[in-house]
């Protein structure tokens, strides 16, 4: 372990501890030459990465554990969303389909809409709007809005693992951490 710490190098900029005073973090299960990354490099990478890559490591599939700390209100800014015209069209269609699905379901429950048509619309909504990729996309947009008011930091994977090892083993901590992320 001591050799591994003396050989820390950032997987993005390839800088080492000797090159700069930037702090390192290990955000996922990756080992070897892609084990460490500078906090600042990770932040810059998140600013340019797609929605899925901001949620989990593409190499080892580990979900990043992010912490939000409220910034001073003077530091708040309007985020750069990076949404093009096609993205705006997708968001508009998703909102319209969601509104139609909810209003159609209410109409079906009241007896003013047909059940077959509304079930077809609900299944289309589930397939196209409520997909995992779309939830990642909207979660990413929400995180960008949140980053305007909050400082986002990534928890170190090794520290999480050490804490997890000290906790009781009769609990499923992956499910608990996932529900904590969903409840944030």
UniProtKB/TrEMBL annotation:
The yes or no answer to whether the keyword Protease is present is no
Q: Which UniProt keywords apply?
A: Membrane, Metal-binding, Transmembrane, Transmembrane helix, Zinc, Zinc-finger
Query: Per UniProt, what is one GO molecular function of this protein?
Result: zinc ion binding
Q: Where is the RING-CH-type domain?
A: 2-67
Just give the chief location class: membrane
Look up the coiled coil feature and give its residue ranges: none
Q: PROSITE patterns per the record? A: ZF_RING_CH
Q: Which InterPro entries match?
A: Znf_RING-CH, Znf_RING/FYVE/PHD
Q: How does it sit in the membrane?
A: Multi-pass membrane protein
Checking Pfam families in the record gives: RINGv (PF12906)
- Where does the record place it? Membrane
Query: Per the record, what is one GO cellular component?
Result: membrane
Its recorded name reads E3 ubiquitin-protein ligase MARCHF5
The organism's taxonomy opens as: Eukaryota, Metazoa, Ecdysozoa, Nematoda, Chromadorea
């Amino acid at each position: 372990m001591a050799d591994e710490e003396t050989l820390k190098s950032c997987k993005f900029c390839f800088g080492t501890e000797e090159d700069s005073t930037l702090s390192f973090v290990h955000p996922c299960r990756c080992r070897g030459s892609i084990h460490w990354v500078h906090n600042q490099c990770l932040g810059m990478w998140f600013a340019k990465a797609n929605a899925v890559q901001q949620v989990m490591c593409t190499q080892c599939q580990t979900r990043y554990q992010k912490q939000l700390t409220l910034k001073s209100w003077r530091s708040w800014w309007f985020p750069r969303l990076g949404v093009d015209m096609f993205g705006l069209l997708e968001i508009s269609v998703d909102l319209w389909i969601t509104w139609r699905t909810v209003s159609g379901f209410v109409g079906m429950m009241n007896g003013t809409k047909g059940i077959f048509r509304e079930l077809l619309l609900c299944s289309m909504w589930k397939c196209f709007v409520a997909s995992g990729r779309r939830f990642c996309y909207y979660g990413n947009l929400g995180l960008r809005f949140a980053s305007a008011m909050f400082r986002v930091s990534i928890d170190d994977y090794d520290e999480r693992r050490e804490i997890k090892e000290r906790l009781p083993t009769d609990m499923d901590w992956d499910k608990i951490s996932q529900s904590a992320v969903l409840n944030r």
